[in-house]
Amino acid sequence: MVARARRDPGAFAAQAVTTAARPGRGGRALGSLAAALALAPARAGAAEPVLVEFHYTPVPNVQMAIWLEDRDGKHALDVLVTQATGKYGIGNRPGRWDFLSSWRAPYGPRPSVLPIWAHRSGRTYPRVIFFDSEPLDLESLGWHENSSTAENYFCIPLTPADHETVVVDTMTCPSPKNFSTDKGRFDPEGGRSVYPPRNDLMVFDPQLDSPDAKEYAGLNQLDGVTAATPAGDREDFTAFLIPAEVVARGPLTARVEVSLEGDENETYAFDRETDHYVDPRLSNYGVEYLGQPSVLYEVTFDPNERGFTGTDRYSGYGDWDGATGAIHPRDATISEDGGSGGDRLKSMTKNGDTFRWGVFSYGEDGQGGDTDGDGWQGSCEFRELAPIEDLQAEVLDFDRVRLTFVVPPQTDPKFKLSRMKIRHVTGEDVAWTPEVFDAAYEVPPIDPLTLAPLGQPSTVEVAQLWGDYTYQFAVLYEDSCANRSPIATVSATTTAQKFQTVDSFCFVATAAFGAPWAAQVAALRAFRDAWLKPSATGVDLVRFYYAYSPPLARVIAGEPLLRGLARVVLAPVADAARLATAAGGS
């Protein structure tokens, strides 16, 4: 049921600018109001850029895509894609599609995450497969160290118990600094995907990474529209300046597709062992992820007409396995309560309108001045915002840093703080350009209402970090018209984790000593990182070991006698490695 609001949207606009605003884009880079206005046609009567707000209240942990389609039903513009899909490429990465999941699991493409958006965008990309060439490892969650390099987002696969602990209690990867993943390569047989590969990789190992990995970022052009997953269970909105050439293709349809991992019901009930692939060599790892398919909400609006359009129900859903971009009509197989299925966007009420998905257009007449006597003064014009002041970083723990900063007072009486953006990358030396900022990891959205008044210090705690890493933080704010302040930066190095955790699968040693966190395994791993990997000869030895030890480890793991013999052989080596590493660090 669609409701059209009255033509007096002043109160709606005044109350709406409280959370997330995003810049518009035309093609690759339409990153500000100034850029959009510069591209506006100069001839009289031509379309002009129009500011539009998209309103919604998602449940936690969803993946979302917001996009516009023109009057002919053709994809016109991407507005927002949550970063696990848009930046980290969970739709197109190495491994089987039915691999089990866990907190930030690194492998297994998820074709069912946002299939309607992906197919209707009209783009395809080379399919990414494992760079690991060992046939026995291509269907495994582990055993890829012979083709793996340091990972700064995805985490080691977890057991169901560990997954529950991480998600409920810490929301932090239990992985130390040297966790590695296989970044993949393009399918040599020419396979294609409707999802982009990850575009966050900045450092490459010429011996362990495929040359293809350097091409991922050039293929993935979603930097300007990716955003952190919404915090969930609170009103949110995205403001977007629609370029003139898209306005001219209206009326437009605003669509949002929403998926939620593991969202099962009676119709879509899946089992860990029978509906997913359980790695027989790591059978204790991973949790099921399949559930109800993605759901679609949509409204049609004329961007030139100032007003609000909303809907209170979803319009259809995607394929449960993401096989096509089909839109299945709303039916009883999809849940509609409890935050499940059609209730992934919660019902919300604003200014007398009740809806789940709503679009407010300022219209051409909303770009400045009170044109229809409703008392609202439009303020969407280019303006320079003062830079953030006194940005400081305080390390609280191995996975948490507190940022303190001041948003300065503004001279413009129309100014409204719409969103704080905080992003970070790892490394010692980063040149923070707008392009690097857009490509960096974004922390969950920050409600400006939780910040101190302008001119006073505000604090924000950034979590989900890794221990013993140097992080470069960048902070800016936006007003209600998507004007950005200059980027303020600060760095901080987290402390090391104070407990031993699993960091990878050290094949023969793990099989011999029974667990990858055993002291002997840790000593051998430290020796590998400190003494072998820095030299070309050492790297060759590591590659040889990883190429030929997995089959041996698979035999040893199941034979107590062989495990005992292996411990006899490896124990002196582990002791020597521990002494060598200790000496090297003194």
Q: State the helical fraction.
A: 10-25%
Order of strands in the sheet with most strands: 11-4-3-13-14-16-17
Note the total helix count. 13
Measured between the Cα atoms of the first and last residue, the distance is: 71 Å
**Uncertain residue segments:** 1-45, 366-379, 499-521, 554-559
Overall pLDDT metric? 79
The share of residues in extended strands comes to 15-25%
The major sheet is characterized as: 7 strands, mixed
**Whole-angstrom Rg:** 26 Å
Write up this protein.
With 586 residues, the protein is an alpha+beta fold. It contains 13 helices and 27 strands. The chain has helices at 10-16, 33-39, 83-86, 115-120, 160-170, 216-219, 244-247, 272-275, 434-439, 507-513, 519-532, 536-557, 560-584, and strands at residues 2-4, 50-56, 63-69, 75-82, 125-126, 128-129, 149-150, 180-181, 185-186, 192-193, 226-227, 236-242, 252-259, 295-301, 307-311, 316-317, 328-329, 348-350, 353-355, 357-361, 389-397, 400-406, 417-426, 441-442, 457-462, 470-479, 488-493. The strands form eight sheets. The protein has a seven-stranded mixed β-sheet with strand order 11-4-3-13-14-16-17. A hairpin with an 8-residue loop joins strand 26 (470-479) and strand 27 (488-493). Helix 10 (507-513) packs across helix 12 (536-557) and helix 11 (519-532) packs across helix 13. The radius of gyration is 26 Å and the shape is globular. Mean pLDDT is 79; it is low at 1-45, 366-379, 499-521 and 554-559.
